Amino acid sequence: MKPTTLHCGRYRLALDRTRSRPLVMGILNVTPDSFSDGRRFDSLELVVSRAEQMIAEGVDIIDIGGESSRPGVAPVPLDEELRRVMPVLYALRDCGKPLSIDTYKPEVMREAIAADADMINDINGFRAPGALAAIAESDCALCIMHMQGIPQSMQQDPRYDDVLHDVQVFFHERLRAAQQAGIASERLCIDPGFGFGKTLEHNLILLRHLGQLQAELNLPLLAGLSRKSMLGSITGKPVEARLAGSLAAALAAAVQGAQIIRVHDVAETVDALNVWQAATAITT
Ligand code: 9MG
Q1: Is 262 known to be catalytic?
Q2: Which residues are within 8 A (CB) of 81 and not within 5 positions of it... i.e. 6 or more apart?
Q3: pLDDT of 196-214, one tens digit each?
């Protein structure tokens, strides 16, 4: 039996494929390269209006991130990440959609939860000392992502004995740690971390076996493939021309059982998933 609900802070998210399409998590970047002029006040207005647009387009969760995790990008200091993320979280607090914070820093997690964040999306799988303790007492959801290495160097010759097995072992260990920290399994979802310390072949093995991963761990599965370089490797297209590849990847993940899809292009992904859902819905 697949999990049918995710306990997500102020929300209970239905994940039942017989009733609804996979959920769409919209990416809301709050990094200087998201803006042309770098002015903070205008930036906040721009970010909030992008969030409003995503809501109008049917987004189910908004993922706010103040640090780029692209390969090779330098880390952002704690105070700068807080300066980027917290005003956006305050501004969107009552927007009616669950708010996820994309961070691996326990201090950001604590501040975000105090400001009503509903989910923490951690590319580091809550491995930083104090990360699980920072969120244990709250009722936010956790997205535990697999990453080999660190963003600065993770794409330099990633290797596995058996990528599927190694990722499964990672999740078993993280789930044990979460359980020991007193975190209920209803709050957890997992993500294989496409592109995070993985070659194209590793990514494709994981994508083809997502269903197996989901069945083995019996937790909601989140997949992030939107505009990623693996799609560029397959299509030969630059990042700004990867919409069709991103939609195909979203559908491939949905077919394999992903229940949450993290994307830049919300309207197009919602349409694609709605059509897929209508065409394949289990009605009995
Ligand atoms: C922050 N971030 C960038 N890519 C991601 C992915 O694939 N999954 C999750 N959970 N977060 C991501």
Answers
A1: yes
A2: 66, 67, 103, 105, 108
A3: 999 999 999 999 999 999 9
Confirm whether 70 is a catalytic residue: no
CA distance 70 to 117: 23
CA 193 to ligand 1: nearest atom: 7
Q: How far is the CA of 123 from the centre of ligand 1 (A)?
A: 6
- Residue 180, classed as helix, strand or coil, is helix
- HSE (side-chain half, CA atoms, 13 Å) at 19: 7
pLDDT value of position 19: 85
Share of residues in the chain with pLDDT > 70 (%):
95
pLDDT in tens, 130-148: 999 999 999 999 999 999 9
- Above pLDDT 90, what percent of the chain? 86
Q: Given its phi and psi angles, is residue 26 left (phi above 0), alpha (psi -120 to 50 degrees) or beta? A: beta
Ligand 1 contact via 198 beta carbon (within 6 Å): no
Q: Is any atom of ligand 1 closer than 6 Å to the C-beta of 264?
A: no
**What's the 146 CA to ligand 1 centre distance in angstroms?**
9
Give the list of residues 6+ apart from residue 266 with CB closer than 8 angstroms, or none. Answer: 24, 26, 53, 54, 57, 58, 59
108 — pLDDT class (breaks 50, 70, 90): very high
Catalytic residue among 21, 174, 187, 262: 262
Half-sphere exposure in the Cβ direction for 58 (13 Å, CA): 16
> What is residue 40's predicted lDDT score, i.e. its pLDDT?
57
Query: Which position among 84, 105, 228, 242 bears the catalytic label?
Result: 228
